[in-house]
């Protein structure tokens, strides 16, 4: 179940200014250890430790392969690749990698069952309960009594 919050667009330069939209709410981010435990609990013949080791090795190998200029496709998940954030040069002759390449970024493109049309069709959504933005700071000294 994907939960969402409704928010008002407050960007005055946007065509959607003062309109209301939904944002997905993430209640938890799973690390590799938690994911391994989750997978091990799904009646697989591998232990949590074995799964964790394979996942760690997979991450290291994906980094190695993509930094060698190759893409990695995990079927029904994503294609991982690198992208470059660059500054412009006046001409091709003036372009210098050290000066003009600012960052190397990880890119991912969904594949198979995680492509947008499939996710949109399969996902169920629900508003994320009651939520209030409290901008007031709590009152009181914050100290205990002696």
UniProtKB/TrEMBL annotation:
This is Putative DNA-binding protein. Residues 2-106 form the HU domain. InterPro entries: HU-HIG, IHF-like_DNA-bd_dom_sf. GO terms for molecular function: DNA binding. The keyword DNA-binding applies. Keywords: DNA-binding. It comes from Segatella salivae F0493. It holds the Pfam family HU-HIG. The keyword DNA-binding applies.
């Amino acid at each position: 179940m994907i939960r969402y919050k409704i928010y008002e667009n407050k960007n005055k330069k946007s065509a959607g200014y003062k309109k209301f939209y939904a944002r997905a709410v993430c209640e938890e981010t799973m690390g590799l250890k938690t994911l391994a435990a989750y997978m091990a609990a799904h009646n697989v013949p591998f232990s949590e430790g074995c799964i964790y080791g394979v996942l760690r090795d997979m991450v290291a190998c994906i980094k190695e392969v993509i930094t060698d200029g190759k893409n990695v496709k995990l079927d029904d998940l994503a294609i991982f690749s690198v992208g470059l954030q660059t500054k412009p040069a006046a001409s091709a002759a003036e372009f210098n990698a050290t000066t003009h390449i600012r960052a190397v970024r990880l890119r991912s493109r969904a594949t198979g069952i995680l492509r947008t049309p499939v996710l949109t069709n399969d996902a169920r959504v629900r508003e994320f309960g009651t939520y209030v933005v409290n901008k007031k700071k709590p009152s009181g000294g914050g100290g205990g009594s002696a």
